[in-house]
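Lecture 7 notes: from sequence to structure.

We start with a single chain of 396 residues. Read the sequence below before looking at the structure.
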Amino acid sequence: MANLFQRIFNRSGVQVAYTGYPSFASHLRGISTKSGAYIDTETALGLTTVYACVSRIASTIAQLHLDIMKRNEDGVIKATGHVAQDLISQEPEQGYTAFDFWETYISNVLIYGKAYAIIKRLPNGDPYELCLVNPKSVKQKMVDSDLVYDIKDHGIYFHADMLITCNLYGQSPIELHREMLGLAKAAQDFAAEFFGSSGNMTGILSSNEPLKKEQIDIIKDSWNNSGDQLGTKLLPFGFSYNRIAVDPENASLTEQRDFMNQEICRIFGVPPSMVGVQSNVTYSNTEQQAIQFAKYTIVPWTRRLEQEMNCKLLAPDERITHFTRFDLSDLLRGDSVSRAQYYDTLIKAGVISINEARAAEDLNAVDGGSIHTVQVNQIALSSLEDYSKKISSDGV
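Now the structure, written as tokens:
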């Protein structure tokens, strides 16, 4: 995901906001926070934990198998011939794979609070392409009681021709939590400045003798230049040094940055261990956090996407039997031991066959493996007496 940051900005053209917005000027350098740091989408992604959380969620969803499913008398099967199948799973937009498309789409909603894609249709109404657009270039309008979207460089589109996914209340997490992110950015800048000055703290040089401006400038430049190098510093004769800055240890910089990183993880719903924030975790804790991440972070996002695609990519009469579905089995299943016990229980209960279990593990089918079996000692209570008599007679 090293180029996710570049793809988000270059791919969606977010380097310039839509000038029709009143906040256009603020997007040129971000909005100042009480900590003094300027925060916008670009500077927020410069925070490693923000980038890691966005990348983790977006890439996880993008890697999931996405299919059009169909209900019939035998259950649910993949509708491989549906017109929208290749659109959502192979190449939503010309020149971009499904992984790149969904990764950028989810990144947009995580950063901006909303993600948009134009649904291009054939004359008969079938969709043939999804075109990503920059969320900042979209204006929502009401025209004759119809909701439309005015998109810069694209034109006006009706709601039915837009694939739209929103965060809670359609608000950007970065805008809602700008002050907290500003504090994290200020702590990061402080650490960078501290190490950039070779660990030298801000202080005051004072002299017992009156000095001319030229002398002051020479002493100041000499002292500042010496601060860029490691080694022993020599005070000029008659000068004393008094430190006025708080050192990182007294400022609890490490603890503060760790706390802010955990706050960022809380905003995006990503377990800290999954983005390298916590190091004191065990294997069992990590596995449980991964399952919680799938259930409480990934599943809500996939449900939003599935319902939106059902409404916009399927015809009204198709929705009775067809629906879109992300395959979450890879995320929700446990380790190899847990999966083996899971399949063993289902096979013995006759719920699935051996070949169905092998297919779930991407293994080839075996001869005779499609038969559903049950354990011999599992019989109906009504037949228990007859079975008992048979066993007794066979033993005589």
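The first strand starts at residue 31 and ends at 32. Keep this in mind for problem set 3.
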